[in-house]
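Input:
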Amino acid sequence: MARKAPQAYLDLKEASVEIQTFNSILSLLHWDQETFMPQGAIVPRSEQIALLSGYIHELKTSRKYKSLIEKLASISTGRIKAKGLSAREKAAVREWTNEIFRLQKLSPKFVKQFSQLTSEASQIWQSAKKESNFKLFAPFLKRILDMTREKTSLYGYEEHPYDALLGCYEPCMTSAKLQKIFTPLKKELIRLLDQIRGSKQIDDRFLHGSFDAKKQIALGESLLSALPIDPAYSRLDLSAHPFSIAMHPHDSRITTRILPKGFMSNLFSVLHEAGHSMYEMGLPTEQWGTPLAEAVSLSIHESQSRWWETLIGRSSAYWRHFYPLVQKTFPGKLGKVPLDRFYRAINKVSPGFIRVEADEVTYCLHVILRFEIESALISGDLQVYDLPEAWRSKMKELLGITPKTDREGCLQDVHWSLGDFGYFPTYALGNLFAAQFFSAFSKEHRDWEERVSKGDLAFVRDWLKVQIHSHGKQYNSEELVKRITGKPLSADAYCRYLKAKYSEIYTP
Amino acid sequence: MARKAPQAYLDLKEASVEIQTFNSILSLLHWDQETFMPQGAIVPRSEQIALLSGYIHELKTSRKYKSLIEKLASISTGRIKAKGLSAREKAAVREWTNEIFRLQKLSPKFVKQFSQLTSEASQIWQSAKKESNFKLFAPFLKRILDMTREKTSLYGYEEHPYDALLGCYEPCMTSAKLQKIFTPLKKELIRLLDQIRGSKQIDDRFLHGSFDAKKQIALGESLLSALPIDPAYSRLDLSAHPFSIAMHPHDSRITTRILPKGFMSNLFSVLHEAGHSMYEMGLPTEQWGTPLAEAVSLSIHESQSRWWETLIGRSSAYWRHFYPLVQKTFPGKLGKVPLDRFYRAINKVSPGFIRVEADEVTYCLHVILRFEIESALISGDLQVYDLPEAWRSKMKELLGITPKTDREGCLQDVHWSLGDFGYFPTYALGNLFAAQFFSAFSKEHRDWEERVSKGDLAFVRDWLKVQIHSHGKQYNSEELVKRITGKPLSADAYCRYLKAKYSEIYTP
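Output:
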């Protein structure tokens, strides 16, 4: 017989499950909004979302909920008071306590004001981006930055105010640690990019013809159904921007989009979002509603999506198995293109202005640019009105190109208009975590390429499930990467991976 | 300037809007479950629904909500206390008060027990129906009847316990009134059916070939888009059973189903559900969240769906315009079938065992059968174990046929397993209301057939919107039918309509 957890723990778990159930309903409202909702329903939908979010916030900050936590741990110090908790239960209590500790730092008034400001600002940002008019957005960005700086004081930090923001998305990270990881990464990426510039460029024009949308959809569905994902618990739809949303390990949904030109975008989106989805589906169902069935952090989540999109989905092993299907789908366009040419084309490196379209080599440079800029905005070293120029000069420095418009420059991402400062680094960290995990995986499965090239993908997911998914938030990202790889996170594995891969693709 | 409602009214309105917003979220959970939800997600979905329903019930029965009502009216007597309310506001207060008065009659314990019983019973009913094994279901039906009888005492009634149940779905109706309406209706329908039996039967075999599903879907979409429905506020999907669900006048969704044989089923479902949908979309948006933006009753709702499905959707005027499209869609099957033959075929009268497949003449007989049986079950004049036999003998009496199995007999409908006694009559009442409304409509629009035969349907919806939709619950069904037709509800208009239509279709 399994031992029974202490009653106070079970009581808190019950309250937490209730809150998460309401959260999962909120997720359905968001999912529906992006997929099937009639477009005219946006006003009532916003009201549904505002009401339910508000109620969830009320539940989380209620006296009743706090008193349930206080029976197990001190919210102010984090010290665990309850006796007889297992290691996993202690980890769950730590996470519950951390969350409420952070929530308490911001007054309901501050939260409401910030949410009103960013709601307005993100509307304005849309127009500003459309018109490529930074001046329209600048006053809002200034106000968001003022409130964000206030937020950093409310949260508190030891060294850099930016640390308080990073902590919202990747609790183990600080500015100083990031600098230590990003500095060699930046250097190596610029070096690699230089080397690639010196090589013969790849011709990938055959990827950018006009591809039938229905066939594209069917192809994406085929790649998805070849992944170890139970269709009884998942679905794939179309939306303006691909995303993944999980209401429960048994209800995890993803979306993709079809570009008339460039059919690989859909396929990489499917693999990327399926990576997020497999993480959510791999969380332990019996712990659902507790931190033990939640993702570690945004970085670790991103490591799972990039794992499937890049480490598997841009590998030659994967396409040895799946490229014939692609050829069969588009025989006129690809029937005569050999696998090797296809593989090189989908891995073409070419500095561009847009982060979400970036290749593996330049992607992290886009992120580092944002990190350097937003950290200077927060510290006050950079003023809002100097942002466009700072962006242009950093693009030149890191990628060697200069955007002509702010739409292709500092207005391209929605994040800042939503007040999401400190978010961008998790995109790069996801790649680094993935590569470092992958080095451990490939040591354990030395025949991974052979197996993947036969279409066997279940053992890959099983490894991730055992190593990462099944733990939920039991370990933080620092503990997790040490457990799996024996080392703290660094850019080493990622740089080794890129170097090996791209010096083969781009022979001097 | 519009006058401002009293503050106590505005406070109650705000609380009511909040409850309705949660209700609309609940509707999305149901809609998603029947359309796109991965099938394996049923357990977490049930938990979402149970939690949210429970919370809505809590809000409605909260002291806070009651005290808001008590400021305007006495819950126990219904007497309005507040000064300065407009007629519409008084009507809203009357409805708010009625609802809470009824809600209070059942204890939370009773509600929970009843919901657990019916949840189990509806599962058992599914198996019983599948196996056509009434004995499996009988003990549950007995327990449901016991609790339902208890419910009638809790609600209270003047003459017949069945009145308390009718009141849940059609507040203006009593057993005695129903008898007065159904007795002549039954007589006339049996007479008409006899007359039809004496005529030459219609050959409708050409409707029951094998029709391409995609073309069927496209055809349903075409009929829908020809209705005065704004696509920005609506959508059409597929589900196992057609239904309509509205979250808001700006988010009203319907579903249909495709039968491989018999393509008219889909088209009639689209028109039927669109009728429900247009009612919801015609409710006054600015009153949303109050009874002034709610349907009068289930009967009036059904009058709107049957209006579009039968009075319009089975008229020769409608098909004069739309039949060419049907022929164009299925030229091989229908290209040579003239309009008149098609019109007679879709109106073929033929007694069958299944209510949902019944034609216009026999439909109400199916309902009267259920009314007579359930009212005898409630009064105790009929025992559960005698139900199958009672069903068979009534089928013989009313429709002249005897089902061979209980699956085609007393096990066919889900309603009783859900404890929905008193619901069935609203299906027949819907037809009677529709016909009586239609007689007023056709007097006002003597050229309606000419206009409809040109595809003009907006003026029909406009009439319904002005006469019915825009009032919400301001008038109850008795007041409404009197306002519109000058007379109380009777079976006269419906009988006149059927007689005129079917004596032309079935010439002796």
